Records
---
Amino acid sequence: MVRYIVEVENLVSKYGEKVVHKGLNLKIKEGELYAIVGGSGAGKSTLLRELLLLRKVDGGKILFKGKDITKLSQKEIDELKKRIGVMFQFSTMLSSLTVGQNIIYVIKKRYNIDDKTAIDMAKIKLNLVGLNPDVFFMYPSELSGGMRKKASLAVALSTDPDILFLDEPTSGLDPISAEDFDTLVRTLVDTTGITIVQITHDLASLLFTDTVAVISEGLIVYEGNPNGLLNVENKWVKNLTSTLRFRRLLNGK
Amino acid sequence: MFLEIKDRVLYIKDYWTVENYNKIKKQVKVLSKKSFDYVDASELEKLDFYGAYLINNFFKEYEIRNISPSYEKIISMSKEIPQLSKKKSNYLSLIVESVYKKIGDYFQFISFTGEILVDIFRNIKSIEARTLFKELEEGGIKALGIITILSFLIGVVIAYQSSKMLATFGANIFIVDLVSVSLARELSPLIVGIIMAGRSASSFTAEIGLMKVSEEIDFMKTLGISPYACVVFPKILSLVFWLPILITYSLILGILGAMIVSDFTLGVPPNQFFHRLTEVLDFDHYLAGIVKGPIFGLTVALIGVYEGFKVQQKAESVGFSVTKSVVRTLFAIIVIDALFSVVYRWLGI
């Protein structure tokens, strides 16, 4: 039986008069790599903010492991937040702490784990994302873009969350680093069974995913295998798939 | 229960995850290691890195049977804990290093000043009147409000504090000497200098720092526009122009505040106050204060701008630089003020 970790039903979001989501539905399976794509201003970031409980929904339901998150008590919300990892677009970390301290802080704050384990776990996570252990003592401002992304991923993974949200993880990376990052994400999903949801503009990243959801005009117009995008009857998707970049990628595959 | 021993086999079961880490650790610690021969993971519901870390730490020497391949992979991934090598530093070298860095910073500041001056003279024609007027408005006119209130209050406070003592000696009229000379020579320049350090130095650093982060400075350079002449020079000029005027303004308001207080607490009416003022406040005193104006203005502008240009290409460093520029400007102004006192004493002014 397929278990869904996140289910969004008839989601409606508005900014004043402007309606962003007009009854949007999507389902994210446990342990899959899920991508959300859409044009600029399609409401991807709004959706992410709603999934992260940073914004109240104006209608519809968001179910996390079968529970409606709009109806949770504050205590349940706090518990739920511990199970969610997130990496924002500009790889945000606490700038006054070193990378190591960032990871240790999150671990101790969330689960009150002893110092030695927290330090070892920080080293393990840095190793896992492929960073040199020296990064442990470095401040986020001392890192290059690619290292910063990886460090931020290590922070997001610090307490082994059930679901990880990545907002445009490969933006600003060179193609080789971007490919490394995509491979890393894929490996994480395959080995640890974590669910990863990424919002992306990077067409090459889509080929690594299990499911792609396309947001257009406030609705999900397609949800399924990335290869199925070619047969979708939607203007935006047609435009996307007819781009030269997309064609070349498919041919290359 | 996360552990169970049956027929000398340790069954690990349930969720070996971060939520249960502390509970599992407690159970594992009291386990007698001789009571089982191997570990069986067939009843394990879920394993994450924390569970794997426990297995690596406590069951290292045991064989683990019936474990799913993905769990096995997690265990092997968390086995490798890299060693951290922290640089050991001794205190002497740290002190020497920081002193060396401080001295280097002063030399850098001097060379920066030289660079700016040369560049400004070379590009004097490209300075725009529009930016100059904008800076003149920002640097002076917008500062009038705060200077009005603070200068007035300083005058009130000095008069108020000294009134009691002067009244005891019956030296009521000498309030004028005390207030006017101290304001003219020391307090007005200092107050204006400090306000400018807080207002202008910080805003210069932030403005130029952000221009550096957003690569606007580099963009100007590639277009052949000199950022020193176009951005920095109007700022320097504005402060050098305004500070003497602002000091005069501050002096007038301070004396006004003292005049009002004297009338109420010492019974010195304004006409007497004014008469005495014309007798004691020589032009020399006024000049001794006003001369500090352009120098304070130059100091504030140069340090503010210098710290702005020192910003690295990261947004975080703007905040540090702004704090640094305010602290350094305040420091510089007070040191320069002290130097002036020494020089005046020496010259007998």
---
Amino acid sequence: MLQLSFNKTALDLDEPRPAEALRTLAELAEGEEAILVELDLPEEAARRLMALGFVPGCRVQAGRTAPGGDPRVYRVDGAEIALRAETATRLKVRTDDHGACP
Amino acid sequence: MIGACQCESCALATARGAGRSKPTVVAIVGPPNSGKSTLFNRLTGLRQKVANYPGVTIEQRVGRARMARGHEVTLIDLPGIYSLTPCSEDEQIAHDVLTGRMPGVPKPDAVIIVLDANMLSRHLTVAAPVLALGLPSMVVLNMGDELRERGGHVDTEALSEHLGAPVALISAARGEGLGPIFEFLDGKLRAVTPRIDRALLNDIPRCRLWALHVGAQTWRPPGPSRTTQRLDAVFLHPVAGPLIFLAVVVAVFQTIFLGARPLMDALQSLIQASGQWVGRVAQNETLRSLLVDGVWAGVGSVVVFLPQILLLFLFIGILEDSGYLARAALIADRTMARVGLQGKSFIPLVSAYACAVPAIMATRTIENRRDRIATILIAPLMTCSARLPVYTLIIAAFVPEKPLLGPLLGTRAAALLGLYVLGFLAAIATAGLLKSGILRSERTPFVLELPPYRRPTLRSLGLRLLDRTRIFLTRVGTIILAVTLVLWGLANLPREDGQAPPIEYSYAGRLGHAIEPFIEPLGFNWKIGVGLITSLAAREVIVSTLGTIYGLEAEGDPAALQESVRRDLTPAGALALLVFFAFALQCISTIAVVRRETGSWKWPALQFLYMGTLAYAGAWAAYRLGSALWG
């Protein structure tokens, strides 16, 4: 199950999307929201992030950056989680409006 | 605290089980920052102890809650977890305790799951695997007051239906809604029916979807915390943020140095007065010398520093409880990244300012083993509270007090701050060395949850200080007293014609003289040498040792410790001594905990040698530099 869901969204497996429509989490402007599509990370790291709420299909909002520009705070499922840019660029998002999660 | 639930929001849904056996061991489990320890403190009051589980690398808290009719429940406060799949050592421990696999810990016969009511949906994913274990469980939604204030709502009855366990909405900090918890502990509440699909547990996306679904049906999420947004706008501001960070640090040092003074002076005169009284009462001369010169002059000189140490712990407690520490870690991440560590290492390093032992235990949250070992190895370079007595004594003896930044920062506080910076720089440089050499590793993603800001409660801060006082006095009563007594013996033997020898010719004196050639290049004489040897047990012992030596020398004419030190050290030697203490690993507890945490003698041995070499070389350089500057 887990292996399957790394590269596809958990919600619409049957509805593949063109890769070029995807942006990375790091590209979002402050306050902008997007739907997480995939986590391009080793399994253990991806698991860790998913346990914290970075699950494909969920809505993520970009927040403030630390002084100096990195890391950055992301709001996901009611919590604020800081990620470095090197991690955020590995999380692919789409910015149309079809998320299931709040 | 036992009684009917008063607030309307904590409706309780459950079946009341008749004749169920009462639980005797109850584990408290939940995600980090959900208020487990606050609830634990509420339920146990002061009937708790910090226990070290054998063979395990963790300080765990066990306490008792007293119920009606003499029934007692043992409560275990588990570390915060994000899941039960053992990702980090914390999670492994929680898993082992809950399944009864932890040696020396009784298997819990019930579980209290503490979740933050403001993050119900994300925290349900932690509750699910715990509920699936099938132990009688209660789900406690904490911080109900905050949920109410931020306009959220939860239907506890519906949630209880979904989870198959009793649910209560409480505020542990304010003590609201605890009634149902006491009923649960008394065996009066029991699970409805377990409703968790085990297939959910190994599939994180599905588990989260389930949690979202349950959350959507039973819970209206609170609005974003305005306070947190406003405070973050200031504390994470590109310019103001780092400046505030610096201001906080400077204020802490100035207060530690000046604010603690009146209390320390009061304690000092109390100790002196009681010492004089003992001197008058004790008839036998040897006994008098043992008590006055040994115990009072030695141990007393360390006890004086209690107010200062408590003040430091108070500040660290406020930083941790308020949520500011996580922001500080965020600000520090770039610096930490430069030496190959991550911002998460910063949090144990800050608590190492209090004491390296809990800091080394706190590294358990770092998932990458190499990062973790690197953090453990550099933690003792951070200036711990045991160095404070040494620093304060030497600085007060050698640095005249002058205002430096008006009334904001004096020369003495600045000197102290300088020593803290020195320790920090040494730690960072060492980390860089380790991470580019023997502990090089793949970079693991830095993930840090930022808790909302909360006002630290007096209760939690008070308990911390009480805990620390207890630990400090135990240390004084055992290790410091023991070393002082042994030293007093060595300083009074061999007897000549039934008389104690002049201290120079005693065993202690000979020991000091034996190492004198080795420490002379650092500007230390034999008395300091004796202090260096005894302080291998614990750093502050050098203060008690000098207290005893000067006490014996003066023969009942106790000149102030500061003046005696000034006679024995040149300013350059004093600088060298400070540098030596900044770097050397003189602490048996740290060595023991590093051995336990890393599982081998290799790391503590390496650490001891490295820090010893650094201390000797640093002190030598400081002495040369000081001699050149001040003649």
